[in-house]
Amino acid sequence: MNQVPSERIRNVAVVGGHGVGKTSLVEALLYHAGAVPRLGRVDDGTSTCDHDPDEIAHHLSVDLTLASCTVEAGALGTVVLNLLDAPGEADFAYQAACGLAASDLALVVVSATTGVDVRTEDVVEAAAALGVPRFFVVNGIDRDRADVEGVLADLRQRFGAGIAPLELPLPGPEGATGVIDLLADTAVTYRGDGSTRGSAGPIPPELVAAESPVHDALVEGIVVGDDGLMERYLEGDAIGFDELEASLAGGILTGTVFPVVCTSATSLIGIDRLATFLAEVGPSPLARPVVLSAGDEVVEVTPSPDADPLLRVVATRTDPYVGRATLCRVLTGSLTGDRTLVNRRTRAEERIHAPERRLGATSIPLDRVTAGDLVVLPKLSGALPGDVLAPKGAPVDVVAPAFPEPAPPVLATAIVPRSASDDDKLMGALHRLCEEDPSLVVSRVDETHQSVLAGAGETQLALAVDRLARRFGVSVDREDVRIPYRETITAEATAEGRHKKQTGGHGQFGVATLRIAPLPRGEGFAFVDEVVGGAIPRQFIPAVRKGVEEAMAAGGLSGFPVVDVSVACVDGKHHPVDSSEQSFAQAGALAFRAAFAEAQPVLLEPISLVEVTVPAELQGDVLGDLSARRGRVLGTDVDDRGRQVVRANVPTAELARYAVDLRAITGGRGRFRAEHARYEPVPPAVAARYGAAAAER
Ligand SMILES: Nc1nc2c(ncn2[C@@H]2O[C@H](COP(=O)(O)OP(=O)(O)O)[C@@H](O)[C@H]2O)c(=O)[nH]1
Ligand SMILES: [Mg+2]
User: Fold this and answer.
1) How many other CB atoms are found less than 10 A from the CB of residue 399?
2) Ligand 1 binding pocket includes 110 (Cβ within 6 Å)
3) What angle do CA 525, 610, 410 make, to 5 degrees?
4) Residues 522-564: pLDDT tens digits?
5) pLDDT of residue 622
6) Domain identity same for 464 and 370
């Protein structure tokens, strides 16, 4: 593929809710550009971007996929469109955010039938947070239930007056058959014969009356950001198309104007025009400065092919056959031939060679990579999303463009390998998956002897388990994550432990009397020696202690580790020949178990501190649900966007599926974070219920 100068590169993240037509829209753009000979379809598994077996099987985009093509854009010449097809599901929001961070424009796709949804709001918020300009596409205007006016009203209500519709659908007998160009005042019709080219003509007379005020509103919306143009407009000057377009491009870049166009990705309406808009008014990488810091110095640089190369890792993917492939954005500089760069985080040297573009699964080798471009690099060793690759010794850190951090995981599952060979491969495979999607976190929990995979939601976890088998040949079962209950006592008790065995020659003899008492929560264990008069010889006291510690670790009445107990060894007996460390360890353990049973033991459960953020109108539902989970609300607050923030203590056991349930209760509008707070006794009524669960262990 031809390389073009940086000002003719457009890096576009295609984002939005699930099923709105993002992957289909990318396909239509590729087909229009001639990058694919036939229009692939998501439903047949023939689209360019949903190429992974899991994506085809589930009709779901789960990875960030690069598809590059070139379009001819009039005086500009050849423009490279680097389209990043992002997954729409909330579970894969981090992938989408990484795609936004690598792009200069967020192409926010909204369904003409279902309109603005939670994910639309989320991706717009994510783009705004990363400072990425936004451009909306209302897709699916061919559908007979399309309601573009309703969607536009919604867009305006949610995202403000900057929403600037450049097109309206041109109604046909069923759905739309074209678009009305509000800038040029023409109607563009599409033949529906597989061609992407529309033909322009006059606006049908019956639509003129409705169109003209929208046209005026649009022109006003565009010139308002440009004082010179505004003045001329108010004086009655007709502002030319080119000037409007230039002003529009400025408004997009500064995030004050959000154009909206209309498409049908499957009937190929408005695709040619979208490609032209992206080329003509989409920001080039040169318009988005890179801010670097070196020591105390912060400098803003315009990406330049002559600078030292600086690359930002956007995503990595491990293919069992091809190996690792890393998607990078060239922040500045250029690459020709081999080059060794250093990963600023790991300090590892990485040999950079054989850069390529991608068309979904297809590689297109590049001889030269220039500032602002998106490229895939093979065989980097350990790069993670967000890492920066710089020449050796260059003390630079990248301040902007910003890169997102994954949100802390909210849902977890335990993973159990089916066979010993699965067990051997499990951790390696899990680590690979977590590298590809850093919003997945794997851990080994010693207290419950489980390998736990945690992430953003059920879809993501289920897919990870599928991938373990499909891509890494590791078969696993899922299990609930065990709650690390503990046990403690609520009263003082004293008991004697007597260990005595007579087996032929040497016997075993040791007696220890222990007084145990509750300790404040979190203090664990204390041991004091109160033996007087050598009832237990000094050298055996540590053995008593060891026996107690082993008994505590082995568990109390329900088999959970015992904590927060002070133990005093108050008396004992020994035998000059038969006593040994072993005997006293046994005696200590026996005494502890006896005293424990007398000391009114209770089950302790972990309590989490939860912070739930929801729109105010959903707060009641959330509070009701928290109290059904035995939660105690600590307080509520309002955040900077007017949402309620509820803080509560909730037993961790009640939160196992909270991510799934909160999404259902709030229609995806609720967020939460949870962290371990402390242990508390399980209320007796609840303990009876848990007793059964505990007994199963
Ligand atoms: N009628 C119609 N169907 C569409 C259009 N765009 C996408 N679809 C269909 O909508 C479904 C979801 O499309 P897809 O591209 O996977 O959406 P994504 O999840 O946003 O990537 C598929 O069945 C597509 O064939 C459109 O413009 N018109
Ligand atoms: Mg998709």
Assistant:
1) 13
2) no
3) 100
4) 999 999 999 999 999 999 999 999 999 999 999 999 899 999 9
5) 97
6) no
Amino acid 57: pLDDT: 81
Ligand 1 centre distance from Cα of residue 493 (Å): 70
pLDDT of residue 294: 86
Instruction: Give the residue, by CA position, lying nearest to ligand 1 atom 7.
Output: 21
| pLDDT exceeds cutoff 50 at 695 | no
| Of residues 326, 235, 51, 267, the one with CA closest to residue 139 | 267
Amino acid (1-letter code) at residue 54: D
Q: What is the CATH number of the domain that holds 377?
A: 2.40.30.10
Whether residue 595 sits in one domain with residue 582? yes
If asked whether residues 68 and 24 sit together in one domain, one would say yes
Alpha helix (H) ranges present in 473-540?
none
Q: Do 335 and 470 fall into the same domain?
A: no
DSSP string, 358-376: EETTEEEE-SEE-TT-EEE
Q: Which atom number of ligand 1 is nearest to the Cα of residue 109?
A: 20
In-domain check, residue 406: no
Any domain includes 137:
yes
Q: Are 268 and 142 in contact (CB under 8 A)?
A: no
- pLDDT higher than 80, residue 635: yes
Looking at 578, 599, 620, the residue that finishes a domain is 599
Q: Are residues 607 and 556 in the same domain?
A: no
In this prediction, residues 582-603 reach a mean pLDDT of 97
Question: Does the pLDDT at position 58 exceed 50?
Answer: yes
43 lines ligand 1 (CB under 6 A): yes
The whole-model pTM stands at 0.91
Total domain count for the chain? Answer: 5
Dist. CA 28 → ligand 1 center (Å)? 11
CATH number of the domain to which 248 belongs: 3.40.50.300
Are residues 578 and 550 part of one domain? yes
Domain that holds residue 669: 603-696
Burial call 88-109: b when 16+ CB within 10 Å, e when fewer = bbbbbbbbbbbbbbbbbbbbbb
Q: Is the pLDDT of residue 692 over 60?
A: no
Q: Decide: 119 in ligand 1 pocket, CB within 6 A.
A: no
Per-residue confidence band for 693, with pLDDT thresholds at 50, 70 and 90: low
Ligand 1: nearest atom to the Cα of 269: 27
538 plus 609 within the same structural domain? no
Residue 119: nearest ligand to its CA? 1
